Amino acid sequence: MSGNQKHWVLAVFLLFFRTTSAQAQQNWAESMVTPRTLDFGVIATGAEAVKTVTVTNSSQAQVHISQVTTACQCARAGNPSKTLLQPGEKATIEVSMDTRSFKQKRDTTLTILLDAPQFAEVRIPISAYIRQDVVIDPGKVDFGSVAMNAPASKTLKISYAGRADWNIRDVRINHESLKARLKELARNAQPVNGINVEYELEVTLSGTAKVGRLVDYLTLVTDDSRNPNVPLMVEGVIVSDMTISNPSLAVRALKPGQSAKVSLVVKGIRPFLVEGVDCGALKDQIVVTKGDKEEKVQVIQLEFTAPERPGRFTEKMRVRVQGREEPLEFSFSGTIL
């Protein structure tokens, strides 16, 4: 083999190695991101639509997200929930569509840039169709902050510009704590202010909803032959009706036979009465003193006498509240010398 041929073979080998290495880096980064595509489907004008992308650090090194962008203003990317990920940690990125300024078919890209442990770029295709004939106001069912066991309701208006005989046939709901009531407000053979048909939609959240963030979608099922389904976002936060201010309660170090008192503070959004405290394995070492009147703030005193068992201890305990099915939990810890 001549010298020129050797140089040519070496150049081809180096090019192949660099290409393969770049592909390996890219595949390494792409394997951390789910989902790999974002399809919003058909969205009504004014409706809010949000999807979440998750970045999971499945490597053995720190991963840093340096930038998140979209190629079109029709889609907006929020800041990552975390930018520096230790091995095993996750970050979420919320992507929303602008259904007020943009219409019809929209195809764009979400780009996630990583600069540690090495540079990588992950691109996620985004697609959506924003229909102009259906307008929802407000753009989502937003319950805001709702106390546990307290029902709530929101009302929206759905306007349609098109066929005078257009109908919403059904409202599909997956969440067990949600119900919907649909009422027709107007039907005009000729458009009035550009609108042929108007509906009112009332969505109710029952008191059975669990504490935490609620993010779901309900679906308006119309009689459109091509695009019958219109999704509608439902959002809210169900907060506990009462909380323990100091859920990790600790007593000072004691010798066997010594006693110490600590106070547990329980707060509610309305007056309540504490029935008792279940002290678990420490029930014989603790004397509970509680109030006998309904108050929004209850201070419970626990007098602990150290047993003949030296060492560190932690015990899960429960506060029983009158009229409340689920007890409140807290931990009680200390050291016996």
- Strand coverage percent: over 45%
> Total number of helical segments?
1
Structural class: mainly beta
Apparent shape: flat
Radius of gyration: 29 Å
List unreliable stretches of 5+ residues. 9-25
* Largest sheet entry: 8 strands, mixed
Helix content: under 10%
The CATH topology of the largest domain corresponds to Immunoglobulin-like
CATH superfamily of the largest domain: Immunoglobulins
Regarding CATH, which class of the largest domain? Mainly Beta
Distance between the termini: 83 Å
Mean pLDDT: 91
- Secondary-structure arrangement, i.e. CATH architecture of the largest domain: Sandwich
Element order, helices and strands?
A: HEEEEEEEEEEEEEEEEEEEEEEEE
What is the total tally of β strands?
A: 24
What count of domains describes the coordinates?
3
Structural features, described:
The protein is mainly β. The protein folds into three domains: 31-131, Immunoglobulin-like, CATH 2.60.40; 140-239, Sandwich (Immunoglobulin-like), CATH 2.60.40; 242-336, Immunoglobulins (Immunoglobulin-like). The chain has one helix at residues 3-30, and strands at residues 33-34, 38-45, 50-56, 63-70, 75-77, 84-85, 90-97, 104-116, 120-137, 141-147, 152-160, 168-173, 178-192, 195-205, 212-222, 229-239, 242-244, 248-250, 259-272, 274-278, 286-289, 295-305, 311-321, 328-336. Strands 2, 4, 6, 8, 9, 11, 13 and 14 form an eight-stranded mixed beta sheet that branches. A four-stranded antiparallel beta sheet has the order 1-3-7-5, with no helix packed on it. A hairpin with a 3-residue loop joins strand 8 (104-116) and strand 9 (120-137). The chain is flat and about 85 Å long. The termini are far apart. 23% of the residues are buried.
